[in-house]
């Protein structure tokens, strides 16, 4: 199912920083001189930065980077390191007295995996930028237990003791007439991840003994009660990128349509315990590509779904959280 990576999009560079002690980490998508951006937040427990600025009615029209990070709200500090990296290179919104880097960010909750005192910060963001700049582009992007997906887990609807390992995934497609659309998604869902072609649960709620994947729907159908407190302990976050030209309204619609990709492969999705957030960026470096928002959004949903499945297929188990490959 997997096809390509977000780094196939012209004008996009990707870097990761992973802390193997817990694990946790961050992923940075650099947009060079800037990219038009939009966002759509569907989950009820988001952790975000600079999302209001992406409203099509608001002033600033381009971002220089987007951050995905673990560490819950603590992970928003990653964006400060990214801003420092961009400021050193003279990139940002020109105010007349300084260039101010515009760095939207979204975080996921992974504090239950390992020591919660270990989380990515500003230095991690700076190092992720250095990694992005050093990586030949386009180039294959590593997936699974890396960057923002290092501590991600899925299938937490009946508690973390029955959850499985999530991760980071990516995919891309060429657009008819020219241009590319790609996605990078850190999968940390309350719900299960399913194969969209068969409905089979690839990773999700395990049986009480932890040896089998049963899935949330079957467990609830068998009468198992939900835990009293789940809290905002999940969230799937991601970035859709394209190298065709879009305005802020178009980028926002692409982000909105891309959530359909999450709905195809995560069940349940967009719950009150998730903070599901998708950004969309358009670099405009492909001048011959389509600007039809509906077409781009349709393929955005496809690559988002592919990226989620790729994340699960690439994940490897950590203590307490087996991966799909462990229970296949």
CATH superfamily: L-amino peptidase D-ALA esterase/amidase
The average pLDDT score comes to 93
The level of helicity is: 10-25%
The major pleated sheet works out as:
9 strands, mixed
Net shape = globular
* Helix and strand pattern: EEEEHEEEHEEEEEEHEHEEHH
What percentage of amino acids are in beta strands?
A: 25-35%
* Number of DSSP helical runs: 6
Radius of gyration over alpha carbons?
Answer: 18 Å
- At CATH level 2, the architecture is 4-Layer Sandwich
What is the number of independent domains?
Answer: 1
Instruction: Look at the structure and give the CATH class.
Output: Alpha Beta
Describe this structure as you would to a colleague:
The protein has one domain (6-323): L-amino peptidase D-ALA esterase/amidase, CATH 3.60.70. It is α+β, with helices and mostly antiparallel strands and 328 residues long. The radius of gyration is 18 Å and the shape is globular. The strands form 4 sheets. Strands 1, 2, 3, 4, 7, 10, 11, 14 and 16 form a 9-stranded mixed sheet that branches. Strands 13-12-15 form a 3-stranded antiparallel sheet. The longest helix has 22 residues, at 293-314. Strand 1 and strand 2 (24-41) form a beta hairpin. Helix content is 23%, strand content 25%. The protein has 6 helices and 16 strands.
């Amino acid at each position: 199912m997997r096809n390509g990576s977000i780094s196939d999009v012209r004008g996009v560079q990707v870097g990761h920083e992973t802390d193997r002690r817990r694990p946790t980490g961050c992923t940075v998508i650099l947009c060079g001189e800037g990219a038009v951006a939009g966002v759509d937040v569907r989950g009820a427990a988001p952790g975000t930065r600079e999302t209001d600025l992406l409203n099509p009615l608001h002033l600033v029209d381009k971002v220089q980077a987007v951050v995905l990070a673990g560490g819950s709200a603590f992970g928003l500090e990653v964006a400060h390191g990214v801003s420092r990296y961009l400021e050193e290179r003279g990139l940002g919104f020109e105010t007349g007295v300084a260039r101010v880097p515009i760095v939207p960010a979204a975080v996921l909750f992974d504090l239950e995996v390992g020591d919660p005192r270990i989380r990515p910060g500003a230095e991690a963001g700076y190092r992720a930028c250095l990694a992005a700049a050093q990586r030949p582009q386009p180039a294959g992007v590593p997936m699974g237990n890396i960057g923002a997906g290092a501590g991600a887990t899925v299938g937490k609807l009946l508690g973390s003791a029955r959850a499985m390992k999530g991760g980071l995934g990516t995919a891309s497609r060429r657009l008819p007439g020219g241009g590319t659309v790609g996605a990078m998604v850190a999968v940390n869902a309350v719900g299960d991840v399913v194969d969209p072609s068969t409905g089979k649960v690839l990773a999700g709620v395990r049986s009480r003994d932890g040896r089998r994947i049963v899935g949330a729907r079957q467990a609830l159908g068998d009468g198992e009660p939900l835990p009293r407190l789940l809290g905002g302990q999940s969230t799937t976050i991601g970035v859709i990128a394209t190298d065709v030209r879009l305005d802020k309204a178009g980028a926002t619609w692409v982000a909105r349509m891309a959530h359909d990709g999450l709905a195809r492969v995560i069940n349940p999705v967009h719950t009150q315990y998730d903070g599901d957030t998708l950004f969309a960026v358009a670099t405009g470096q492909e001048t011959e590509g389509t600007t039809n928002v509906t077409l781009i959004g349709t393929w955005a949903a496809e690559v988002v779904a592919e990226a989620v499945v790729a994340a699960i297929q690439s994940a490897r188990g950590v203590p307490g959280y087996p991966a799909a490959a462990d229970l296949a």
